Amino acid sequence: MIAALTLARNNVPVRIIEREVQHRRGQRGPGIQPRTFEVFYFLHVPEIHERATSFPPLQEHDRGSLEPRNTFPMVEYTEPTPAIPYVGTFTNLPFSYNAKLMGQPTLEAIVRDHLAKLGCTVELGTQLTSFTQDEKCVRAKVVRHRGDDGEKVEENIEAAYLIGADGARGMTRKQLGLTFLGATREHDFMLVGDIRLDAKGLDRDHWHFFGEVSQDVITLRPTDELGKDGWHIMMKGRITDLEGLIRDKEAFMNCISDFIGLGDDVKVKEVMWASEFKPNMRMVNKFGVGRIFVAGDAAHVHSLAGGQGMNSSVQDAFNLAWKIALVYKGFSPASLLDTYTAERLPVIAEMLGYTTEMHKLMFEESGTGCTPPSIADDNRTSKNVKSNLERGMRRGKNMYMLGVNYRTSPIVIDDSGVPAVQLAYGEIQQGILRAGDRAPDAPGLVSYYISRGSQSAVSLPSEMNASTRMFDIFASTHHTVIIFTLALAVPFVQSVLATLQRVVPKELVKQVVVLPGSSSQPDGSVESQTSSKEDQAFDVEVLVDQAGHAYRGYFVEGQETKVVVVRPDGVVGAVVRGVSGLVQYFEGIFGKKGGMLTTEDAVQI
User: Fold this and answer.
1) What would you report as the CA-atom Rg of the chain, rounded to the nearest whole angstrom?
2) pLDDT tens for residues 210-241?
3) What is the DSSP string of 221-273?
4) Angstrom distances, CA of residue 127 to CA of 130, 317, 574
């Protein structure tokens, strides 16, 4: 649905089909990482963070005892910075540096509401059965289920592109012939579910773990999304008949009672949803063929450890959808879509390595003997932990996904001279910003306008005294070109603006000039030698970095002039100091004709 929302925001018509006749149930994949909150912010979906809840501390118990033997936080508090928003400190943005929790049914309902406002609904009971493609379009055959009598109606759909987000067992990947190499952890069979539970003495302030995760264990996480007595449960065991428990409510209740140790004081009021789960660690060899692509679980599956699955799926979709929007409208060549695989494949490969190692640390009696970077401290030394569970559940900063990057992408341009060596799934590198990195936020940018009657000043009217931030300038519908300069009246600025006017369609780029805070005068003006005729030639927003956050966050030093291009997905596409680098970047996006391609043959997606 994230791909659909991104396309709809870009005014691209889209259909969403869902095989199931009801919207999915189950709290699966509830952890939302900070980078994913940023994606939702760019897509104008603030409710997800507003309604998400913080991770409760984890509490380990011996089997049959409510007495805690270890309590620890999964998510350590992280100090905020202006570049990484944090509630109540530097910003009023609706998300924070730390991860939060929301079940997928709630999250998907929120996204569906936004899609409905854009005229797009999920077509339930509609199954993809086959497809073909050629140079012009995709032809898909679907079967729609009508009414309660099981009537089936076939429909042929012709679309520009097909995105298969149909899960690990879906047919899109299989019919494309993509490989799905990896392993299945057969001995780590798990049962996951949502229940309503009465258990006297079991507090709702912790995420409870009863037993040993390397042997038999039950976990209970309180969630008010299911009601005041709602819990998400996970059971793992090599002795307990987990498959039988799915079908036997009394045995299920007895098992929970045995693990918790409350006897008759435990009552399972309702099993709302339950499913078996075997950890798979697999991924495709490429993310698409021709006009057909896979995303999320259809492209990669992995352990629950790390809380990366839903987040990676969201970022797959966001990476792909803005590119499809440009190609569909005729602004970009089809070759732009090849970068979906080029950018996401290295990221997912590294993510699978991290989450697999975390799974071993959590669920095996003896891990590999080392601590992966995802759970090491800033000095790369292992934390002083008491158990495999704590070792595996503690989250390192790379799990926030803020350091996920596309530095090796064929379409990013960087002439900063900074080496590109960096893990695709690493942490943010302090003191470095390269093309392919996440674009930092920067609050405290004051809007100025160019006085049309003056040739020497940019003035600030009192009614425009409010400040803005980088994250409010970025959007999924356009590139943002940020020109850092000491003054407007330099030939470089005029050259950049003229170049943009020539090579980029006007509606696809937002031009922003950021002046240092030192440019501001006591009377609220900014020194400039830009003539009014030149001012009117370009549609550019002028901002003053009053607090200096933008210049520090984008590492602009001294008398330096720099241009940073931010893509629609909030990733730095280019860091350049001349118009040649700027032209090279946009030719990679729009082709050498500057994006002036026709849209006469566009086919409905």
Assistant:
1) 26
2) 988 777 889 999 999 999 999 999 988 765 67
3) EE-GGG-TTEEEEEEE-SSS-HHHHTT-HHHHHHHHHHHHT-GGGEEEEEEEE
4) 9, 20, 41
Q: Kindly provide the b/e burial profile for residues 196-235, where b requires at least 16 CB atoms within 10 angstroms of the residue's own CB.
A: bbebeebebebbbbbbbbbebbbbbbbbebbeebbbbbbb
Looking at residue 374, its pLDDT comes to 47
> What is the C-alpha end-to-end distance of the chain, expressed in Å?
14
- Give residues with Cβ within 8 angstroms of 189, minimum separation 6: 236, 242, 243, 276, 277, 278
- Report how far residue 516's alpha carbon sits from residue 446's, in angstroms, rounded to the nearest whole number: 11
Tokens of 380: 């790369």
Q: Residues 170, 164: contact at Cβ < 8 Å?
A: yes
Q: What is the pLDDT of residues 85-134, one digit of tens each?
A: 633 333 455 555 678 899 999 999 999 999 999 999 999 999 999 999 99
Cβ atoms of 144 and 155 closer than 8 Å:
yes
* 3-class DSSP assignment, residue 142: strand
Render 202-232 in DSSP notation, one character per residue. --SSSEEEEE-TTSSEEEEEE-GGG-TTEEE
Q: Which residues are CB-contacts of 102 (< 8 A; sequence separation ≥ 6)?
A: 30, 32, 48, 51, 52, 53, 225
In angstroms, how far is CA 380 from the centroid of its own chain?
Answer: 26
Looking from the CA of 219 toward its CB, the CA atoms found within 13 Å total 23
CB atoms within 10 A of CB 129: 12
Q: Which residue has the higher pLDDT, 42 or 450?
A: 42
Cα–Cα dist 385/393, whole Å = 11
Tally of CB atoms within 10 A around 536: 10
Q: Report the C-alpha gap between 56 and 75 in whole angstroms.
A: 9
Amino acid letter, residue 4: A
Q: 312 forms bridges with which residues in the sheet?
A: none
Among residues 468, 415, 378, 352, which one has the least CA distance to residue 585? 415
pLDDT tens for 358-412 read 777 777 654 444 444 444 444 333 445 567 677 766 666 777 889 899 999 999 9
**Which residue intervals of 261-308 are DSSP H helices?**
none
Of residues 254 and 22, more confidently modeled:
22
**Long-range CB contacts (within 8 A, 24+) of 455-459:** 455/529, 455/530, 455/531, 455/532, 456/527, 456/528, 456/529, 457/525, 457/526, 457/527, 457/528, 458/488, 458/525, 458/526, 458/528, 458/542, 459/524, 459/525, 459/526
Q: What is the pLDDT of residue 375?
A: 46
The CA–CA distances, whole Å, from 463 to 31, 61, 448, 450, 592 equal 41, 59, 11, 15, 42
